[in-house]
Design goal:
single chain, alpha/beta, about 160 residues, about 25% strand, two-stranded parallel sheet, 2 domains
Length: about 160
């Protein structure tokens, strides 16, 4: 599994869940996040500021792109035939290209699922996965929290507190 944006709010959970399921995980993020991602269990790390992941890895089963956008399609050629790419933010993918490569691209809207949330609760309680907190803001400072998110390079989740 290759996870682009592995240090962020979604990526750091995805990495831990993939490891829990026994996957070999390649984490893509900026170099500052290498120690954090190693602690979470990444098997391999690619600093996207120094290397282009799509030039280094091939025959991937699954790409989870938590960054998404127009550059997301560059990961298609890292997949093996039968592989899948899941962009968290849907991008522009050429259906002819995905058919030719023998890969699928899909996305989904997040919906609450009681059984899945209960399982996540058990994993959190057991210490199998944990939540990393990038920063905390009072609800009244939600604008500052949004500005923090817009700057990117987040390590974990941004939290809003209610007084």
């Amino acid at each position: 599994v290759l996870i682009n944006g592995a240090a962020g709010g979604v990526g750091h959970f995805a990495l831990q869940l993939a490891k829990w399921k026994g996957a070999h995980v390649i984490a893509v993020a900026s170099g500052a996040h290498a120690p954090f991602l190693s602690e979470l269990g990444a098997d391999q790390f690619i600093d996207y500021t120094k290397s282009r992941p799509e030039e280094l890895v091939h025959d991937i089963d699954l790409v989870l792109d938590t960054v998404g956008g127009p550059d997301s399609k560059r990961f298609l050629r890292t997949l093996k035939r039968g592989g899948a790419q899941f962009p968290v933010l849907p991008g522009d993918f050429d259906e002819e290209e995905t058919v030719k490569l023998g890969v699928t691209v899909s996305s989904a809207q997040v919906r609450s699922n009681g059984a899945q949330l209960a399982e996540l609760g058990r994993l959190l309680d057991a210490g199998t996965i944990h939540v990393a907190i990038d920063s905390t803001f009072a609800l009244t400072d939600a604008r500052a929290a949004h500005e923090r998110a817009a700057r990117g390079h987040i390590q974990g989740k941004i939290v809003l507190t209610v007084a």
